[in-house]
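Workshop exercise sheet. Pairs work together: one partner reads the sequence aloud, the other fills in the structure field after running the prediction. Swap roles for the next sheet.
Pair: D.N. / O.F.
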Amino acid sequence: MRNLEIDIETYSSVSLQKCGVYKYAESPDFEILLFGYSADGGEVRVIDLASGETLPADVLSALTDDSVTKWAFNAQFERVCLSRYLSDLGVSLDPFHDRHPLSTECARFLNPEAWRCSMVWSAYMGLPLSL
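Structure field:
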């Protein structure tokens, strides 16, 4: 897998507009309800996490693999929310696998290097910034 296009639907009792994505995702009742994705331009699939479905192993692996480019509209939101989701599952987010000599803590968020934001591309091309 080289590219993963992602869209998530979430819930949190914290106001996203008032508090921002970090507080929103840190809320005890935060959850990802739906995870929509397409791998390498293939068929779009939707995983209903709220109903107990789980992400396929290859998608879980791709989320932490910096060689896989992740695309999302407002990618920062998806990256922070998925960081919380993966942390709750016990998945390590540390690209150095906790062996970096300068690191004394585990990474709390997915590495932004492999993420691309289609909202930024829209702005670059003069298109609207809202969906």
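Discussion prompt: Strands lie at 3-11, 31-39, 45-48, 69-72, 115-117. What would you look at next?
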